[in-house]
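Blinded run. Sample ID left blank on purpose so nobody reads anything into the name before looking at the predicted structure. Input follows.
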Amino acid sequence: MKFLTRLIVEFYVIGILLIGVFLVLFSAHLIDFQILAHYLKVAYTDEKLKTGLTITGFVLLVLNFIVYRAFYLSQRRDRLVTFDNEAGRVSVSLLALEDLLEQCVEQLPEVKDVKIYLRTSRKALWAKARLELRSDENIQHVTGRVQDIIRRKAQDAIGVDEAIKVMVHVSRISPDKQSDKKNSGDPYNRGNIPFQGYRA
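Blinded prediction complete.
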């Protein structure tokens, strides 16, 4: 099926390339209009050629449907995790699992915002977390905790003995602005000097 899909995609790429070249040549007047009109008239009047064009059109429609189904079903498979229980098969939407993992990661005080994207393969479940942190202190420790949370929570949620690979990307570090700044008017940070009485 993969070979057939790849073959159809290459066919479509070549077909679109030829159409593009034809349109460029036609708009640049590099194709004689009289010759083009002659070939169109022949294709319109010749019965055998009309039959061949009709068959070609139906074949293209079938190929188009096959490509659509192949990509659509592949995309839907990649957005689901399926496993078997005693009562039957269970499928879990990756969108629901992504929301669950984001809620768990957002509970960390060091994380300001997180976006998690999941995808499946035959060998593993892949998770990519995009983080916005509140501080640049000990990024390695924070990202390690995020990876551990995602791995354990995903394993507990789907309950499948499947390898879970977690990639973390820190996209932004945004320290929170402190509204109460101590001693903002005293650059020397002297603090409060106790009253020691009047001196003579």
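Unblinding after everyone has recorded impressions. Residues 23 and 31 are 10 Å apart (CA to CA).
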